[in-house]
Structure formats: C-alpha cells, structure tokens
Predict the structure of Distal membrane arm assembly complex 2-like protein.
Amino acid sequence: MLESFLKAYEDACAAADLTPSPGVAAATGHVLDLRGNVGKMRTQRFTDVDVPALTSALQSGHPFEEIDLSFNRLTAKGVAELATFLQTDSLVRAFSLAQNDVTSEAIQELCMVLKGNMTLEELSLSGNALGGAGGLAVADLLQSDNNLKKLRVSNCELDTESLVALATVLQANERLALLDISRSLAAPLMEEATSHFSRMLKVNATLEELDLSCCGIRDLGLQLLAEELFRAFDNSRLSVLRLRGNHIHLVDSACVGALNNLLSSNSCRLTILTLGGNVLKDEGALKLADILAANSSLTQLDVSACAMRSRGLCAIGRAIAPNARSITHPKLLSVSLWGNSFDSAACLVWQPIMSVLELDILVQEVDGVFNCVQK
C-alpha cells in the first residue's frame, strides 16, 4: 500500500510539474511509524499548490491513520481540496491543520464536510484565525454524527459567543474526551465563558481533559470551575485541568474554599492540575499547601513561574513531605517548580524530595550555599 501511494504521489507531482514534498517522500523512513500497514505522514513546506497532487494520491489508496499538515502555508483553496478527500476517507483518525493560514470560511466548509465522518477521532485547528463564525462551525460539528474524541482550537481568535456555544453543545456531547481552547483572545470577557464551561462540567460525563490556559481566568473563574466539578461528583470524568498563564492568585476565600472542597473530596478525579504562570505568590502558595495536605488524587502538579518565594515554596514542600524524609501524598509523582525564587531554606526543603518525586529542578550545594537549577 505504501509503495503504491508513493508511486501515485510522484506521478501526480510529475504531471503537475511539482517537486515532491520531503515529508511525503520520507514516508518510507522515520515519518512512517508502521503498525501493520498503518502510519503517520508529516509534510513540510506545503502550500495550496502542493495539495491536489497529495489528495489525488491519497484518494487512490494510502496507509496513513494520521496526517499532520501543521506549520505550513495552507489557505482556503488547499483546505477545500483536503475536505473533499476527507469526505470519503475511512482510514485517517487524526488530522492536523494547526498553524496554517486557514480562514473562517474554509473552516466552516471543512466542518460541514466532517459531519457524519465516523472515522476521524482527533482534529487540530490551533493557530488559525477561526474567529466567531469558525468557532460556531466547530460547535455545530460537535452536535453532528461523528466520532471526534480530541479537539484542539488553541489560539484561534474565538469570541465569547463561540466559546459559549462550545460549552453549551458539550453539555450533551457524549464522545469528546479532550478540548483545548487555550490562548483564546476573548480574555476580557472570559469570566462569562468560564461560567458556561463550569456548568458544562457539572453534567458532561465524557470530557477527560480541558485546557483553559492563557484565557484570562481569575479567582472567580477557578471558583466556578471547582464548584461545579464538586457538584458533579462521580458523574464527571475530568482528570486533567490546565490553567497555565491565567490571572489566578488563589487568595479569594470563596475560590480557596471551592478548590479545597473539590481536591479534598473522595470523588475528585483530577490527577493533573497545571497552575504554572499564574500569580500565586507566597499568599496563594500557603493556601495551596493546605489544600494539597488534604488531597489524595493528584499525580502531577505544575506551579512553575508562580512568583513564589521561600515561604510559599517551603509550605508546599512540607505539605507534600512534612518530615522531609517520605512523601505522605498517596499518588503524587511529579511537581514542576522552576521559575520561582528559591533560597537556601527552600532548597533544603525540596532537596530530599528529589529522590522520591520527579521534579523539574535540581538542588546544588557550592561552598555551603544551596542553589536551584533547572533540570
């Protein structure tokens, strides 16, 4: 199958007087991860001119479960050709158009074609200017008959209306397991959208990972998310919540109480919580330390670059290992800490923890002075 595909592709390129893409031509090597007769194709330096030859070869038969067209220069014309191919394809399970020049209109056409496609499970449109109309088209796609399980629409200029639409349709969606809407440009109005996502989490029973990084979320937004996840009890399957690069301080009492209720609950399913790049400082770190002492679900915690100093870092370290000899948290495996301000006291608290947990730092001693370096 691979050999016939490559022959069809080379013939199509010759007919169009094109140079074959290095990524496609290299499919016989490391680009193709063989699993039986199925693999992954990653193209490079692709433009709309190159797409017809590729789709012609793909339609004649191919061995690819995953097609990655990210970081190219595809626009509406190329996407239209690809949409025609995907409309009848029954093998591709993961498709990426991330970081291209795809317009909102092209995304609307693609989403219309993908309705009824029961093969595709992963779709990445991140880094394209979907805008409000494109975001609404994606929300409409999630309401149709399909088998999408992972959707990435990060940095897509989604507006509040399209974010609310995504949250609304996910209240009834029973397939999607991962949603990435990080770096949304609707940050000034994000609290409104966050309230809709929190209500969605109360009733959604399939979503396992949600990425709301760099969305302008403040303590109120975290409070809403935590409250509704707590109310969901065993109905929620959310295990990964990514909130990097927001404006969370973790000092508002209602927010602290809601997060504490969630993470101390026996029904909490969260295993990965990323808070890196927020502004916890020592005050928020002290609150988080108290919460961690009562948690029994997290396996990974990210508090890197949170403006924490010695007091906060020591509090979190002691919450995890009160005796500096053994980890009392039942499941924690890794903690990200780099980007905070370590002094000798903080280094001494975390040094013995390095032998038990996976950290992104190392503690070094030079002339009796302890320093923290990135691993």
Summary: The longest strand covers residues 361-366. The radius of gyration is 24 Å. Confidence is low (pLDDT under 50) at residues 28-37.
